[in-house]
Structure formats: structure tokens, C-alpha cells
Design goal:
The chain has about 775 residues and is α/β, with parallel strands linked by helices. Helix content is about 60%, strand content about 10%. The protein has 27 helices and 14 strands. Strands 10-11-12-7-13-14 form a six-stranded mixed sheet. β11, α25 and β12 form a beta-alpha-beta unit. It is elongated. The two termini are about 45 Å apart. The protein binds adenosine-5'-triphosphate. The site of adenosine-5'-triphosphate has 22 residues, from α3 and α19. The site of adenosine-5'-triphosphate (ATP) has 22 residues, from α3 and α19.
Length: about 775
């Protein structure tokens, strides 16, 4: 049963998602990108909570459901979840113990076993594992609160006085969403040019095709001759003449056989080479594009995979054997016409009167195909997108019981395509019918007129030769026509492939871009304005000014969706600001080579993405500029507090992770990602909620490791749990894309502003 809009609105209100959705230009109809990439972490979680609430099930499973929320949202969502859980059985998995304090029963697990069970009060009185976990969290907070931070104040003053503004705006902003890549048309010759490295094979294959194409007209002549011989009266002459014709047939068979073999082999070779090259070039071109390009809805995983698998192969339809068929038909047709004119030009001319009609039928057919092929291709892509989305999120699909919904969606997309195909085939079949029928009308006319010519003295075997040659010539056109759907598909696919290959990404190295030599490493955001290309009307950062000094740790805090992760993404140059400058050592980052800039940045993000490789390889991926030794991998893993776990696995560092690292817990994934960032030895460490999925114990150890890793490095850290960033040299409070407050923990607490409010909301 589908939820009504009111139910959805009520659920979004309960999950505290209503306001931010309402502010989006398309409201509930906003497209959120694949895996919700166009939402902030907290927004995604709130929508997931709303989705769970809308189902109104008897059992509610909350697996760290509020971990990515800021305090304000968390307390509101928590209220909603509390209300929802009152009416149903609820299982909560949480690291933040304050969120489960009121649970009817708390189960403490250690190494896969239940070690304690009971209410909060009971478990506290036991003074056991649970007590340890709770007190660990409290002690953490208190240490943060009472620490004397005189020298930090000094640092802050220094920092603050250095926040300065660089005027000038030399960032070019191009709105990727507006810049719609026009589907240009590619000529057949441009496609053949794509096959240019295989020109030698194509030439040989074409010669083979021409020879094969001559086969039918020669057959027509020989048959005509045979009819002439058979009408003779001398048996001996007839015998020797038929033998001669048989030898001709035999020789023709051998030549045609060999030429067909040659043309099929070499055209296939050329076609396959093209597909291989195209796939590799397309994939390279995809990886070259800026992140904003992937945000566009037409560039989802499904569509791009379809491009790589389907379209790259379809281009072959416009070259390879199709090209062979066309050359073959043209050879047949021209020789047939030539022979017809030679043997009886008058009969040839009469039959050729049918040519305009034949061509008209051909033209109509190709036009019909051109109109519908693009739509067809889009429909296949649409259904593939649904399938890929469902399969890659199969856990969510299963838990939501949305199998039928996705199946229905998939079938609907296919039906649209099938209807289009059927409509095409009706019209196409009529056009095909006419094209074939015309051949026989031409034959009838040729015979009728041929009768008169025989009376006038034209040998009747010539009439047979001319009409046969023309019939076979027309049949070869029909063949070319039958293959032309593939040709059109090939041209469409080539269009779309060339469009991608020729696309210049919005974020590229400037012609005089240089390698970044890291001197001081001071990062400055000056008057930065930014909105995501897919939502140009929603400003995310508004005139942001921020300086991050070398070796300092700067924490970004603020409510969910205020733009913290965006600030980090801009320094990585995943996007360029609409206006304003981001600089390192007073050099605009757009003047540096993107790869060089990124090589100095190590990121650990909210949702660490791991590859379906071994743990060792996943860690080594952190630095692709060199061969990372096993010792270094182990060292990084130790620092990230994951070594003990990895060595306890039977295959250790050679353990393969499933797709997206599904075989690890959230905390383990995060620690592998931390190890991956550490191996890079980056100048700047970007921690976007890096420890949010860790339990208190490993968070503490990882935090220590991160503290060590931060030494001598600039660090930008984002955290909702304010206790984790109290030690930061500078805390920047971001509010709705603007810098609202700046200072150390103590200063901000004294200021009693937004930070103080956020801090108090966490129950301190
Ligand atoms: N790729 C994207 N395309 C369009 N809008 C986006 C995209 N990514 C994020 N946004 C929007 O930009 C705003 C800021 O997002 P951002 O991820 O920077 O927030 P955040 O402060 O890090 O939030 P959280 O604490 O929840 O992670 C949000 O409103 C979000 O919906």
C-alpha cells in the first residue's frame, strides 16, 4: 500500500526533516542522487527515519539511527523515535549510551556474547561492562570541560587576527546543470574514423566485401548463360558448355568463400578492437569528470554502466560487419545495374524507374528508426537504473519489503520500451513489406517489357540475366535495410560516446598549473559562495571567510546540512566555488595541479567507501604514487587500532572485503579508512565525522592515534559530538553556510552563543 502525501509529511515532520525538504525548490520531489549523495549525512538519516516511520511496522530496528545527527535534530528525532517506539517493539543499536538510557532492557555484547542484560539502573549497579562504557563516556566529557587552555587562547588570538580577506574573484564558475550537453549528430564517416587504427584490416575486409558482392550478379550472368546453353540442340556442345559453367560456379564458390572468410574475420577484428578501445577510453573519460557531473541524474551508476557495456558494443553496429554488408550490397547493386545496362540498356532503364520508389521506402524506414532509437536507448537505461539501484541497495530493499515495488518499477520501464518497440515494428513491417514487394513489381515489369524486346530480337537469355541481376541487386539492398537498425543504433551509441569523450570537465588543470610545493600550508577561504550545480538556486556557503593555519586543528561544527562537509569538498576541488577564492599559502588552488593538491590531502569521511579488495590493498590504496610495503600497512593499521582485529582473521590482511566493505562493521570500516588516510602521510588531514561510528573504547584509541597523526599536520575535523573536538585549536561554528562563531572551546563557551547552545543541547 502506498503512503499518502499526508502520511509522508507527518513522518518527515516527526523525523525533523520537513523544514529542510520544504526549503528545497522541488520539495518532496527533489531528486537526491544515487545513495542520497546530494544530501548531507544528517539529512539522509532523517529521511531514513521518516521512511521507517511511514511504514508503521510492529517492530522498529534502529541501528545507530541518530549517530549522524546534530544535537538539535537528534533530540527532536529522539522524541519522535521514543513516541514511535512506545507503540511497538524496538531494538536499538547505539554507541551513544545517553540515547538508550530509557530502554526497557539493555543488552551488552562483548566479542559476540551477551555479557550483561537489564535496565540502565540495574546495569549501573552491577559496576561491570556497562558501567565501564558509561563512565568512559562521562570521563571523556569532563576532561574536556576542565582542561586549562591558556596557550590555546593565545593561538586563537593569533589565528583570529590573521583571518583576512583576499579580494578578487578569478574563479570561473560554470553551472554544469545548465550546460546541457547537446546530442550532436555524428556522420557515418566520423564513426568509421573511430576505427582508423584498424584501417589495414578494414581495407582488406572491404576488398573481400566487394568480391563477395560481385557473386550474385555473376551468378545471374552464369544462370542466364546456362539457360541459353540448355536451349541448344547439340548434346555434345551442351555437355562441354555446362561443364564450363560448372567450373565457373566452382571457381566462384572458392573465391566467394575465401573473400567472405576474409571480410568476416577482419571486420570482426576491427569491430572488437574498436569496442575494447572505446570502453577503455569511455571509462577514462568518466573518471576524468568532476564530481558535479556524477550528481546529474543522467549519470547514475546504471546509465554509466550501460554506456560501458552496451553502447561501446553497439558502436560496432556502425562499423565492422555492418560496414561489410553495406559495401557488399553496394558492389552487388552497382555491378547489377552495370550489367543490366550492358546487356539491354532499354530494359535496364525501365527497371530502374523503380529506383526512386525503392529509395523512398528506404528513406522512410531509416527516418522512422532514427526517431525511435534514442527513445529506446533511454528506456533500456531507465530500467537498468532501477535494477542496479535495487541490487546495490538490496539490504534496504529487503528490510523495507520493497521487492515488489522495485519489480513493478522495473517492469513499468520495460513495458514503456516494449510499447515503443511494438509501435515501431508495425510501421517498420509495412515499410519493409513495400520495399520487398517493389522488387517483384520491378520483376513483373521487366518480364513484361522483356517480352516485347525478345520479339524485337534481344536474346532471351539476356532478359533473364538483366532481370535476375536486378532482382538480386534489390535483394542486397533489402539486406542492407534489414541490418540498418544496428547501423542506426551504432550511430546513436557513437554519438553518445563521442559526446562523453569530447566533454571537457569543469574542473581541470589550468594550462600553466603547477605542482604544489607545500610551504606553510595555510588554507584560506575568502568570500566563498557556493551552491551545488544540481541545485543552483540553493546557496550552501554564503560569503565564507576562514583561515586554517599550518599544523593547527580546526573543527567545523554546526547543525546538520549547514555546509560542513561542503567546506571539505571544496578544498579537495570536488567542486569549485561560484565566487571567492580558496588558497593554500596565498596561492589559489585552481592554479595548482588537481592531482598534486589532492596528494597532500588525506580524507576520512562520514561513510568510508571501501573497495571489494583485500584489507591490505584497501589500506595501500591510500598512496598510489609508490609501492606500499606490508610493514607500512601494518604500521598504519596499528595506528588506526584495526591491526588486532585484522590479524585475528584467518586470512589477515589478505581478507577480501565484500562490495562496499559490507563484511565489516561500521566501526571497522572507519578504522580501515583511517589507516588508508594515514598511509598517505598527508599534509592536511580531513576528518569528516571520522570517529562517529566507533564505540567509546575504540574511539578513544583511534582518537589518540588521530591526535598523534595530527601532529605537524593541518587538520580540518567535523564532528557532531562536541566532546571530540574540544581540544581543537580553533572551532568554527557554521550556521546556514555562514561562519557564525570562531574561537576555542573555552572562549566559545564564555561567549554563550550558538556553540554554547549546541554544547548544552548535548546534555553537558
Ligand atoms: N551533491 C549535492 N548536490 C546538491 N546538494 C547537496 C549535495 N551535497 C550536499 N548538498 C546539500 O548541501 C547542504 C550542505 O550539505 P553538507 O553535506 O555540507 O552538510 P553538513 O553540514 O556536512 O551536514 P551533516 O552534518 O549532516 O553531514 C545540504 O542542504 C545538502 O542537502
Amino acid at each position: 500500500m502506498e503512503a499518502s502525501t499526508e502520511d509522508i509529511i507527518t513522518a518527515t515532520k516527526k523525523a525533523n526533516a520537513y523544514n529542510f525538504i520544504n526549503e528545497l525548490p522541488n520539495g518532496l520531489n527533489t531528486i537526491v542522487g544515487e545513495r542520497g549523495a546530494q544530501l548531507s549525512g544528517g539529512q539522509k538519516q532523517r529521511i531514513a527515519i521518516a521512511r521507517a516511520l511511514v511504514r508503521n511496522t510492529a517492530l522498529l530496528l534502529l541501528d545507530e539511527a541518530t549517530s549522524a545527527l546534530d544535537n538539535e535534530s537528534e533530540s527532536k528525532v529522539q522524541e519522535a523515535l521514543d513516541m514511535a517506539s512506545r507503540e511497538r517493539t524496538t531494538i536499538i543499536v547505539a554507541h551513544r549510551l545517553s540515547t538508550i538510557r530509557n530502554a526497557d532492557k539493555i543488552i551488552v555484547l562483548s566479542k559476540g556474547k551477551v555479557v550483561e542484560e537489564g535496565t540502565h539502573e540495574y546495569l549501573m549497579s552491577l559496576n561491570g561492562e556497562y558501567f565501564k562504557l558509561v563512565t568512559n563516556q562521562v570521563v571523556d566529557r569532563e576532561i574536556g570541560e576542565f582542561e586549562e587552555e591558556e596557550n590555546k587562547k593565545h593561538v586563537f588570538r593569533k589565528l583570529k587576527s590573521k583571518v583576512s580577506v583576499i579580494s578578487g574573484d578569478d574563479n570561473k564558475f560554470s553551472d554544469a546543470a545548465d550546460e546541457e550537453d547537446e546530442m550532436g549528430t555524428v556522420s557515418f564517416f566520423q564513426i568509421v574514423k573511430m576505427n582508423s587504427p584498424e584501417w589495414f584490416q578494414i581495407t582488406i575486409a572491404s576488398i573481400g566485401s566487394v568480391i563477395t558482392g560481385f557473386a550474385f550478379p555473376i551468378f545471374a550472368i552464369s544462370t542466364g548463360d546456362l539457360v541459353g546453353i540448355l536451349s541448344g540442340t547439340d548434346d555434345v556442345v551442351m555437355r562441354s558448355e555446362t561443364n564450363r559453367i560448372c567450373i565457373y560456379f566452382l571457381a566462384a564458390g572458392i573465391i566467394v568463400g575465401l573473400s567472405t572468410m576474409t571480410n568476416i574475420y577482419f571486420f570482426t577484428f576491427a569491430g572488437e578492437s574498436l569496442t575494447l578501445r572505446l570502453r577503455s577510453q569511455l571509462f577514462k573519460a568518466m573518471l576524468r569528470q568532476e564530481i558535479g557531473w556524477y550528481d546529474r541524474k543522467e549519470n547514475g551508476v546504471g546509465a554509466l554502466c550501460a554506456k560501458l557495456s552496451g553502447e561501446a558494443a553497439l558502436v560496432q553496429g556502425a562499423t565492422g560487419q555492418r560496414l561489410g554488408t553495406i559495401i557488399n550490397s553496394m558492389a552487388t547493386l552497382s555491378l547489377s545495374i552495370g550489367l543490366a545496362v550492358y546487356y539491354s540498356w532499354r530494359l535496364g532503364l525501365v527497371t530502374m524507374l523503380f529506383m526512386p520508389f525503392m529509395l523512398l521506402a528506404l528513406f522512410m524506414e531509416s527516418r522512422l528508426l532514427r526517431q525511435d532509437e534514442t527513445a529506446n536507448l533511454e528506456a533500456v537505461k531507465a530500467s537498468m537504473k532501477v535494477a542496479i539501484e535495487a541490487i546495490s541497495n538490496v539490504r534496504t530493499v529487503a528490510s523495507l519489503g520493497a521487492e515488489d515495488l522495485f519489480h513493478e518499477k522495473f517492469t513499468r520501464e520495460l513495458t514503456v520500451q516494449q510499447k515503443k518497440n511494438l509501435r515501431n515494428s508495425h510501421i517498420r513491417s509495412i515499410v519493409y513489406g513495400i520495399a520487398r514487394g517493389i522488387t517483384f513489381f520491378a520483376f513483373a515489369t521487366a518480364m513484361f517489357y522483356g517480352g516485347y524486346l525478345i520479339i524485337d530480337g534481344t536474346p532471351y537469355d539476356d532478359i533473364i540475366k538483366v532481370s535476375n541481376a536486378l532482382i538480386l541487386g534489390t535483394v542486397s539492398i533489402a539486406n542492407a535495410l534489414a541490418f540498418s537498425p544496428d547501423l542506426r543504433k551504432g550511430i546513436n551509441a557513437a554519438n553518445s560516446a563521442l559526446q562523453l569523450l569530447n566533454r571537457v570537465p569543469n574542473i581541470v588543470d589550468a594550462p600553466d598549473a603547477h605542482e604544489k610545493k607545500w610551504k606553510e600550508g595555510t588554507i584560506e577561504y575568502s568570500n566563498v559562495n557556493f551552491s551545488y550545480p544540481t541545485r543552483p538556486s540553493v546557496p550552501v556557503l554564503k560569503n565564507l571567510n576562514l583561515t586554517i593555519f599550518d599544523g593547527k586543528t580546526v573543527a567545523l561544527v554546526g547543525s546538520s546540512g549547514c555546509g560542513k562537509s561542503t567546506i571539505v569538498q571544496l578544498i579537495e576541488r570536488f567542486y569549485d566555488p561560484n565566487s571567492g577564492v580558496i588558497s593554500v599559502d596565498k596561492e589559489n588552488i585552481v592554479d595548482m595541479k588537481v592531482s598534486s593538491l589532492r596528494s597532500h590531502l588525506g580524507i576520512v569521511s562520514q561513510e568510508p567507501n571501501l573497495f571489494d579488495r583485500t584489507i591490505g590493498e584497501n589500506i595501500a590504496y591510500g598512496d598510489n604514487s609508490r609501492d606500499v610495503s606490508k610493514e607500512e600497512i601494518i604500521e598504519a593499521a596499528k595506528k588506526a587500532n584495526i591491526h588486532n582485529f585484522v590479524s585475528s582473521l584467518p586470512l589477515g590482511y589478505d581478507t577480501r572485503l565484500g562490495g562496499k566493505g559490507t563484511q565489516l562493521s561500521g566501526g571497522q570500516k572507519q578504522r580501515v579508512a583511517i589507516a588508508r588516510a594515514l598511509i598517505r602521510n598527508p599534509k592536511v588531514l580531513l576528518l569528516d565525522e571520522a570517529t562517529s561510528a566507533l564505540d567509546t573504547e575504540s574511539e578513544k584509541v583511534v582518537q589518540e592515534a588521530l591526535d598523534k597523526a595530527k601532529e605537524g599536520r593541518t587538520c580540518i575535523t567535523i564532528a557532531h559530538r562536541l566532546t571530540t573536538i574540544q581540544d581543537a585549536d580553533l572551532i568554527c561554528v557554521i550556521d546556514k553556510g555562514k561562519l557564525a562563531e570562531l574561537g576555542t572551546h573555552q572562549e566559545l563557551m564564555k561567549g554563550k552563543g550558538l556553540y554554547h547552545q549546541l554544547y548544552s543541547l548535548q546534555g553537558h
